[in-house]
Amino acid sequence: MNNKKDIILLGSTGSIGDSSLRLIRKNKEKFNLVGVSAHNNVKSLSEIVNEFNVPNVVLSNPKNAKNYFGKNKLSVGASSLVDLAKVSCDIVISGITGMSGLHPAFAAISVGNDLAIANKETLVSAGKLFLEKSNKNKAKILPVDSEHSAIFQCLEKNNFSNIDFITLTASGGPFLNTPFEDFKNIQPKDALKHPVWKMGQKISVDSATMFNKALEIIEASVLFDIKSNKIKVIIHPEHIIHGLVHYNDGSVLANLGLPDMITPLSVALNWPSRLDLNLEKISLTNINKLSFYEPDLKKFPGLKLGWEALQNPLCSPVVLNASNEVAVEAFLNKTIKFTDIYNVVYETLNFYNPSSPKNIDDVIEIDKIARLNSLNIIKRQNLHA
Q1: Mean pLDDT over residues 255-271, rounded?
Q2: Containing structural domain, residue 106
Q3: pTM here?
């Protein structure tokens, strides 16, 4: 009898993909990799296919397909990525960054595949649609973000009505102690030096601006059906406590662990069981001190937009996410300053107020228009610079 879980890994060559492969590699008796995708990195994709003998393989950008040397057949293009997510399996890991992960993640739950989601942009932009579809098809959505995994592990289903609020922790990024007057001089190379996590460029910049936490506020509201005034954010530089659930009786359940994406991934892939992971364990005496601070909203104004997007019908989560992606790319290309990221997003939100999307096509259309508006704002700023 085969008790292995069949897994499809979308975004196999990114940071989430790398952590997922480390976990699968050490637990081959439990997991069977039946599908993988990459966007550009055909060399790593080929090596993964050959190591794990993966039967379903997709390169979403066909440009580098001629360099593929995997032992199994390669499919190319965005439609093949959606088809891959629909292959029958136990769970699909969505590790694709940005809105590129929207269609395949939605395709996965549309056929009843469970979804381990590390792509916060997807739930921020289309959370309500995802929940409706997952409930209809009895497909679970399991968080992979360390903070949401922490909340997930601390929630007591039988006690849900007794929750007072939840707290998401944030490391504070590389500029926690940088004076605000120096923010205008921040360069991309500085923003990419995260003090705790090793991540891709976009997520690293989001952590530096704390836009990542704004997106996580929205994601938490979607995942746990919790109102914005019940979601707090606290700066915790050591990043040992990943999330806390506060109950009405005054008790608080907290999730602690050394920073490593392997643990939240293993929780998503095994819940409610747990794996025996050979990871470094916490020693409280070695930690010695844990510190906590209120976020500085003058230095990190993007954080406020997470609550705003949930409270104000004119602040669209789709627009917030799309505009931020455009602004981050412009900053990485040195087209705008670090402090302009917030300005571009704020101006886009004020300029474009779409109604709530009723389907995935609506989400894509709003996303597209928001990006065009943000690009125009950036061009206008540069003309007047």
Answers
A1: 92
A2: 5-143
A3: 0.92
